[in-house]
Design brief:
It is a single chain. By secondary structure, the protein is mainly beta. It has a domain of 135 residues: Immunoglobulin-like. The protein contains one helix and eleven strands. The chain has a five-stranded mixed sheet, with no helix packed on it. Strands 2-3-4-9 form a four-stranded antiparallel sheet, with no helix packed on it. A hairpin with a 5-residue loop joins strand 2 and strand 3. The longest helix has 10 residues. The chain is globular and about 50 Å long. It starts with 9 loop residues before the first helix and ends with a strand.
């Protein structure tokens, strides 16, 4: 008896073969390692180890000596400035700090004594000794700061910290500036590079 041969079209043969399970199974998907970056979480670099430095950028904590051999940590937290100048062409530039006594002895002094703002053109402004409330931000607590006047004498016990503001009356437009403070009568300047207004 003759067996009939059935010729299958090549396209049908391909469909049949693809429907059959393969004898070798694909390896299971590997789970993301612990070091992978989760795309659902905003990526930020690992924090850098704290270093004792006397210069940096806004947000950095500087380590500064005092005249009596103590040590102060100072962080420039943020700053604020009106968009438009007043009738005299000047704008109040408020700079907010956190100051901590990390030494072993009580420190008493004026944090803003010797503070200044300089720009690339050599412009120079000292902190106002008695800031007018109208020149300061009306609600610094909204961004975690304080309008405590740092041109007044304060006392910090070991481990104690304070937040406050230094006010500079400046002219000109928005530009890069350097904010500097000192706790040892100018022998050591702590300086932050920042911007006066949006750059």
């Amino acid at each position: 008896m003759r067996i009939a041969r059935v010729a299958l079209p090549a396209c049908l043969l391909t469909v049949l073969l693809s429907a059959c399970p393969s004898s070798t199974s694909a390896p299971p998907p590997t789970s993301a390692s612990a070091s992978s970056i989760d795309p659902l979480v905003p990526f930020s670099p690992s924090p850098t180890p704290f270093e004792e430095v006397t210069s940096g950028f806004a947000g950095d904590t500087l380590t500064l000596p005092t005249t009596d051999g103590g040590t102060i940590h100072v962080r420039l937290d943020t700053s604020a400035i009106p968009k438009d100048p007043g009738p005299d062409g000047l704008r109040p530039f408020s700079v907010y700090f956190t100051i901590e006594n990390v030494g072993d002895d009580t420190w008493t002094g004026v944090p803003g004594q010797g503070a200044r703002v300089t720009d690339e053109a050599g412009g120079f402004n000292q902190a106002e000794p008695d800031p007018r409330p109208r020149d300061l931000h009306p609600d610094p607590g909204a961004f975690g700061a304080s309008n405590e006047n740092l041109m007044a004498e304060i006392t910090l016990e070991p481990g104690e910290s304070i937040q406050g503001v230094l006010l500079f009356i400046t002219g000109g437009g928005n530009r890069p500036v350097t904010v500097s403070v000192t706790f040892d009568d100018g022998a050591t300047l702590g300086s932050w590079a920042t911007s006066m207004g949006p750059s």
